[in-house]
């Protein structure tokens, strides 16, 4: 998918695209570890020691990424080890991969731009739109215990927004869907720094937004407990007001909500 194509063309492409959703994420192994990425330059005292890791997948494709020495030792990783940590494609603010990958914790420690997929589950009740929000688990690395977008997750390296959106909706809420049932609403960029659990969290991501308006049987909702504590329906207008007033119960990204509202042809307040 080319994130730079016009929105209307992208919507048509997504709605007509027959995609084979990967049930298993790409497996990578450590091919080589190169200690020290500074060459002849000395490492500044305040910077942690790094190494360059070469990964290889089952297709023989290779990628390199830079990680902290301490992190590698903590995970007991060496040449030949299977790489189990999440990997993201490094991208620009438009969501276009620019080459290179980054491990999840490093992306959030250093504010490296990556991609996410957001899905809004929407219904109409008495002439008003409602959205299904998930309550984040208390041990989430950011905004624990807050109500957030229906389903959202990072796009793994090599994956596309649509397949990631379908996978996250199934993993987090147990909702099985198809490409034709998810409508692309747009994208937005998030960049902030906040402290959670005593650690600085630097988020820098481009989010692809999808809308799901199929009937939802709440009795069949299956929550991914390590990610989601509960789900609840809210009036969309109520959530918009909560975002504008910075209600601490909610961590819904305001730009994501505005993207959805524009897609639904609703007025958007500043």
Please outline the helices and strands.
Layout: H1 7-16, E1 28-35, E2 50-57, E3 62-68, H2 69-74, E4 82-83, E5 87-91, E6 97-103, H3 104-110, E7 114-125, E8 128-136, E9 147-148, E10 151-154, H4 161-173, E11 182-196, E12 199-212, E13 228-235, H5 236-244, H6 254-263
Report on the architecture of this protein.
- The chain is an alpha+beta fold and 270 residues long.
- It folds into two domains: 28-110, no CATH class; 115-263, Alpha-Beta Complex (Nucleoside Triphosphate Pyrophosphohydrolase).
- Helix content is 20%, strand content 37%.
- It has six helices and 13 strands.
- The chain has helices at 7-16, 69-74, 104-110, 161-173, 236-244, 254-263; strands spanning 28-35, 50-57, 62-68, 82-83, 87-91, 97-103, 114-125, 128-136, 147-148, 151-154, 182-196, 199-212, 228-235.
- The strands form three sheets. Strands 7, 8, 9, 10, 11, 12 and 13 form a seven-stranded mixed β-sheet that branches. Strands 3-2-1-4 form a four-stranded antiparallel β-sheet.
- Residues 1-23 have low confidence and may be disordered.
């Amino acid at each position: 998918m080319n994130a730079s194509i016009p929105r209307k063309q992208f919507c048509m492409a997504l709605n007509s695209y027959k995609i084979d959703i990967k049930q298993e994420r790409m497996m990578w192994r450590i091919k080589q570890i190169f200690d020290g990425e500074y060459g002849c330059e000395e490492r500044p005292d305040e910077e942690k020691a790094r190494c360059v890791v070469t990964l290889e997948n089952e297709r023989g494709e290779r990628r390199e990424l830079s990680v902290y020495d301490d992190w590698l030792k903590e995970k007991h990783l060496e040449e030949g080890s299977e790489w189990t940590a999440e990997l993201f494609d490094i991208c620009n603010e438009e969501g276009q991969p620019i080459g290179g990958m980054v491990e999840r914790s490093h992306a959030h420690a250093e504010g490296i731009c990556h991609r996410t997929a957001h899905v809004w589950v929407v219904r109409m009740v008495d002439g008003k739109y409602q959205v299904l929000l998930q309550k984040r688990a208390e041990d989430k690395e950011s905004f624990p215990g807050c109500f957030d977008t229906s389903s959202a997750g990072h796009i793994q390296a090599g994956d596309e927004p649509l397949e990631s959106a379908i996978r996250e909706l199934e993993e987090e809420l147990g909702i099985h869907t198809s490409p034709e049932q998810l409508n692309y609403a747009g994208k937005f960029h998030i960049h902030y720094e906040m402290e959670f659990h005593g650690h600085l969290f630097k988020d820098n991501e481009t989010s692809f937004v999808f809308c799901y308006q199929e009937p939802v049987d709440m009795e069949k909702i299956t929550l991914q407990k390590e990610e989601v504590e509960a789900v609840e329906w809210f009036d969309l207008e109520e959530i918009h007001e909560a975002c504008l007033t910075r209600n601490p119960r909610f961590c819904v990204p305001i730009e994501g909500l505005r993207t959805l509202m524009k897609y639904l042809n609703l007025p958007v307040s500043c």
